[in-house]
Write a structure and sequence with these properties.
By secondary structure, the protein is of the alpha+beta class. It is built from 4 helices and 6 strands.
């Protein structure tokens, strides 16, 4: 009887330990859907076009009414393209650490936590940001409607 009670206790303890090791869905980052991955890929491509100063591709991506919010001001598409073309702000490299995407019919919002290496009016900078981008599907192409930089600490976490 003592042996069977001891065996039962050990079995229950082993089962409890195995459940404690199992990750819960609330702590795991969900895999993006195909549509979400399309926006993630487009955002990454945009960062590369910005680094390359490829204003021709950016001009197609940016909606004519797009707004851009930076630490020093807010402006529209033409001014953003001019800033990139002239190198007034050169987005040299954006290291993307985390992204979250939400889709609402033909609208997508992507939040990216990045470390941005840039040159701003001749001064090099390396800053942590959470960037919010809003895209809208127009016909068959996504257009960027808004891009906002929010300065954050490197410990900032995007809730998924």
């Amino acid at each position: 009887m003592k042996t069977s009670m001891l065996s039962l206790c050990l079995l229950l303890m082993a089962m409890q330990a195995s459940f404690a090791q199992t990750p819960t869905s609330s702590t795991a980052t969900p895999l993006p859907t195909k549509a979400q991955q399309e926006i993630i890929d487009l955002s990454k491509q945009k960062w590369q076009w910005m680094a390359d100063k490829n204003v021709d591709k950016l001009a197609v991506l940016f909606d004519d009414k797009a707004k851009f919010v930076h630490m020093s001001g807010t402006w529209k598409k033409d001014e953003e393209l001019d800033i990139i073309k002239t190198g007034s702000i050169w987005y040299r490299k954006a290291d993307v650490h985390d992204v979250a995407v939400e889709l609402f019919d033909n609208t997508a919002i992507i939040w990216s936590r990045i470390t941005l290496e840039s040159t701003v009016r001749g001064t090099e900078a390396k800053v942590e940001f959470t960037v919010t981008e809003v895209y809208q599907k127009q016909r068959k192409d996504w257009k960027l409607l808004a891009l906002t930089f929010s300065s954050v600490r490197d410990t900032h976490v995007i809730k998924h």
